[in-house]
Every structure is written in C-alpha cells, then in structure tokens.
Amino acid sequence: MQTKRTVFPNKVLPYLLIAPQLLITVVFFLWPAATAFWQSFLRQDAFGFKTNFVWFQNYRRLFADPLYMDAFGHTLVFAVSVTVLSTTLALTLAAAAMRVLRTSRIYSTLLIWPYAVAPAIAGILWWFMFNPSIGIVAYMLRSLGISWNHLINPDNAMVLIVIAATWKQISYNFLFFLAALQSVPRSLQEAGAIDGAGPVKRFWTIVFPLISPTTFYLVVINIVYAMFDTFGIVHATTQGGPARATEILVYKVYFDGFIGLNLGSSAAQSVILMIIVVALTAVQFRFVERRVQY
C-alpha cells in the first residue's frame, strides 16, 4: 500500500521544523556526552587549577576499585528487580482493568497518577512510610514481628529503593499494557474459549504473544529507567547507604564527581554506564527480539 508523501513548498521549512529538536539533542545530550568522554581521560585537582591528560588511567583505577565492582552488583540486583516487578504488576493491573469494564476509567486514572510524581518526591513519600520511627508501614511490620530499619540494614534499604522505583514506574507500564490489551481482537479470545481453552491458557497462548512487542519495548525502557532515572529516588531515601549498600552506578557517578570532586573518575563512570546501556539494548534487540511476534 502506498503512503501519501508530504511535499513542502519551501525546502527550508522542514529543517526549521526539526531545528528545535536538533538543538535540544545537541545541547542536552551530544555536548554533555562529548565533554564527559574527554573529561574521562583527564585528571584534575580539587580546585580546578591543574589538569593532566592521563589516557586510560581513570578506567584502570575504576576496574581495580572494589567499591566500583560492588556498585555493579547493586545495580544488577536493583535493575532486574525493578524491571521484573514493575512489568509484572503493571500487566496484572492492566488485565484486571480490562475485566472491570464499568469502573476501568476511574481505576485507570488512579493508577496513572504516580507517573506524574517526581522521582525525588516518590522517594521521600516511601521514606516516610518506611521510616523506622514514624513510618506507618514500619509500624505495621513491627506489629507482625518483622524488624525493619533501612537506616542500618542493607537488605531493608535495597528493598525500599526497589519498592519506590517500582511504584514510580508501574503507571507508565500500565498505560502501554492497557492499550495493548485493548487492541487484542475479542474474536480470537472467543474462538479460544469455544475450543475449550481456559482464561489462563487463552492469555498465554493468544493474548501474550500479541502484546509481546509492547512487553519487549517496556523491558528495554525499564532497564534504562532503573539504570539512569532513579538517582532522585536513591538520593531521597538512602543516599547510597547504609555503608554504600544501595550505591548503584548512577549514584556513584554523582557521589565521586560532586561529593568526592574526582571529576575524571566520575566522567569515566558516565562513559562506562552509557556503554553498558547501549550494549544491553543492542543485545536485547539482537537476541530477545527474535521471540517477539509483530
């Protein structure tokens, strides 16, 4: 089928239309990325008076630093937990919204609200609820005999940031899953029911393959979100503690660069983080996308 091609009478107009987006990309992505790449080969004193070109010395020191290797492990646990929980819960809620037809609009609106909350606000909200002194969730856990103190317990702290980051991302995933489920032809499910397939079997054999492109897209987006966009949550809840137990890679970039004033190491970490996310996305498109049915 041929698509209608838009022809602009003025040849300059298309370039003017995309110029704002190109300007934003250059100013807020390409220029900072190029500066971080160049800075990763430099070593600067804390006052910025002297700068030396040290080649790959910043990178070699990073991979010899046990704290950086620990941050890798924390990031892996955090990203996998957030991605699995946020996509699974969002799919469950979207499926439930499809079944509750009369109240689905109110139900959907209530679930979308968390997406409008800033990450730092979400982190403070959950920090108050899980605060061992005044938090209502911590009080309920103590009533059940469960000891909770994310200020001194590393496992509790990791659970707290995973819950906060998952809650923040569920609404985004929910929107996409709800739209995908609404696009599944009802006749296919009815045909499956006539053939004797139960609700669970119909979902996994008919519905889930049809929404697999959306699921694949959300997995990629959620991994990127967990690795890049959760700084505000970690900073507002645990600040990487206790004893750096929740210091993920993006927070270590901030800590070493702005607190430790080690700009070369911080820039090298930024470059490595960017390479990791690009490599993960490429691997997912290369191997996981084969199982997706468009």
UniProtKB/TrEMBL annotation:
Keyword Hydrolase assigned: no
Q: Could you name the domain of life of the organism this protein comes from?
A: Bacteria
Pfam families in UniProt? BPD_transp_1
Topological type in the membrane = Multi-pass membrane protein
Q: Which InterPro entries does this entry report, sorted A to Z? A: MetI-like, MetI-like_sf, UgpAE/MalFG_permease
Q: Which intervals hold domain ABC transmembrane type-1?
A: 72-284
For this protein, the parts annotated as crossing the membrane are 12-34, 76-98, 110-130, 157-181, 202-228, 267-288
Its subcellular locations are: Cell inner membrane; Cell membrane
Please verify whether the record's keywords include Flavoprotein: no
What keywords sit in the KW lines? Cell inner membrane, Cell membrane, Membrane, Transmembrane, Transmembrane helix, Transport
Similarity comment: family membership = Belongs to the binding-protein-dependent transport system permease family.
Cited function? Part of the ABC transporter complex UgpBAEC involved in sn-glycerol-3-phosphate (G3P) import. Probably responsible for the translocation of the substrate across the membrane.
Q: How does it assemble?
A: The complex is composed of two ATP-binding proteins (UgpC), two transmembrane proteins (UgpA and UgpE) and a solute-binding protein (UgpB).
* PANTHER family hit by this protein: BLL4140 PROTEIN, SN-GLYCEROL-3-PHOSPHATE TRANSPORT SYSTEM PERMEASE PROTEIN UGPA
- Protein known as: sn-glycerol-3-phosphate transport system permease protein UgpA
Phylogenetic classification of the source organism: Bacteria, Pseudomonadati, Pseudomonadota, Alphaproteobacteria, Hyphomicrobiales
